[in-house]
Amino acid sequence: MADYLETEWSSAATAARRERYYAQSQKKFVPFKEPMVFRKGSMQYLWDTEGKKYIDLLGMNVCISVGHSHPKVVAAAMAQAQELTHCTTMFYHPTPAHFAEELAATMPKGHEWVVHFTNSGSEAIDLAMVMARTYTGNLDLLALRTAYHGPTSAAQSLTGIAGFRHPGMPGNVAFVAEPNQYRGIFGPGTEPYLDEIERTIASATTGKVAGIFVESVQGYGGIVEMPKGYMSGAAERVRAAGGLYIADEVQSGFGRTGDHMWAFESDGVVPDIVVMAKGIGNGFPLGAVVARKAIGDVMAEKFMFHTYGANPTSCAAGRAVLKVIAEEKTQENSRQVGAALLERLKDLQQRHTAIGDVRGRGLMLAIEMVKDRKSKEPDADVTAAVFESCRGQGLILSKSGPNRSVLRMVPPMCLSLQDVDRVADGLDRAFTEAAA
Ligand SMILES: Cc1ncc(COP(=O)(O)O)c(C=O)c1O
């Protein structure tokens, strides 16, 4: 069966086909100067067509939560695909029903939670926008600068980075300053950023809002953690204006931040709606909106049909992911291995002046490059040079942040302490090379 589809594996042939047949919109997002073709993945490792091994610190854009081709996840999805690959949501199927129950059980206790499965994170974001507007009867939404919420028109309208925004997005979104503790416009602290929410509601909305969307840790924005008190304070202020608090856990969820299953838990806030995707399926396409029941119930009047939402194959993968997280203690591993890696990154900061900041929690980490530590002027060139050099060292990272001056690390949660040494040593060499 492996030969059923004839495939030409050479990098040159793949590059030529992409160049000829991909639309420009799908060609832009290319990280390295030379094409990179991966042939195989296993847990935290990848192999290219020449057999070179890499540590995947990007986790294929945070989709690989418990490990590439994790045998238990693949087996669960394969078994389901062989039995019944797809079952439209109008018919009942136990796999998504079980998964909805299991996901709801991960939410804060004392509330009734309901689940709507989508195909992707941005679809889930769109649905959360509709739910918030329908439930509250308000139109205006708040989002954070440097936020990323997805490529659909509605999700783009919440995205606070110009490079991801295209013409024709819907409006009624007001942006507030992201509480970036390293380079935020109000400096470090929480209160000035919360005051900004109040000012924005008073000046850029009708005074009544449908809600605020907050990534509990901003991902593409360059691993921007919400400081203590921000998420709960934002929820309080938005609720006072009639709105809901919507947590985007697409990157930060499923135990990645180490201390909690959901990163919003670090601030004691109980969201009204939680959006999740990516790591939920360990590479199988899936997203979900988990909402308080009363909020989900307002959607009873009209159809909201995602063709592949609640697809049993992806949901079988999702169920297996939750089981693996519990059995293999991946959240605890994220905490321990992430802490060890953070230490090593701080050590690199001592020795390489290009590193302005090191930050993050669990296995959601970043280093930010600057031209000068005092002025904090972002250095995209050094970032690109280190990034390229890391390829040679067998490390795959991501260039992130609005200035492409951040190296983001969001590996599969099975990264080991031995890997930490390889990562730190490889980065050390890459910084030395970049400075030469
Ligand atoms: C925080 C966040 N929200 C939403 C999305 C959109 O998810 P998707 O790409 O599955 O549509 C992304 C994707 O990168 C994301 O990082």
Keywords:
single chain; 436 residues; alpha/beta; Aspartate Aminotransferase, domain 1; Aspartate Aminotransferase, domain 2; 2 domains; seven-stranded mixed β-sheet; four-stranded mixed β-sheet; 17 strands; binds pyridoxal-5'-phosphate
3D architecture notes:
By secondary structure, the chain is an alpha/beta fold. It is 37% helix and 17% strand. The chain has 14 helices and 17 strands. It has a seven-stranded mixed beta sheet, sandwiched between helices. A four-stranded mixed beta sheet has the order 1-2-3-15. It has a four-stranded antiparallel beta sheet with strand order 13-14-17-16, covered by helices on one side. α8 runs parallel beside α9 (230-240). The chain is globular. The model has no long low-confidence stretch (mean pLDDT 96). Bound molecules: pyridoxal-5'-phosphate. The site of pyridoxal-5'-phosphate has 15 residues, from α6.
Task: Please specify the SSE layout and strand pairing.
Blueprint: H1 11-21, H2 24-27, E1 38-42, E2 45-48, E3 53-56, H3 59-62, H4 71-83, H5 94-104, E4 113-118, H6 121-136, E5 141-144, H7 153-157, E6 173-176, H8 191-204, E7 211-215, E8 217-218, E9 224-225, H9 230-240, E10 244-248, E11 273-276, E12 287-292, H10 293-296, H11 312-327, H12 330-351, E13 355-361, E14 364-369, H13 380-392, E15 395-396, E16 398-400, E17 406-409, H14 417-435
Parallel strand pairs: 3-15, 5-6, 5-7, 7-10, 10-11
Antiparallel strand pairs: 1-2, 2-3, 4-12, 8-9, 11-12, 13-14, 14-17, 16-17
Helix pairs in contact: 4-11, 5-11, 8-9, 12-14, 13-14
The structure holds pyridoxal-5'-phosphate.
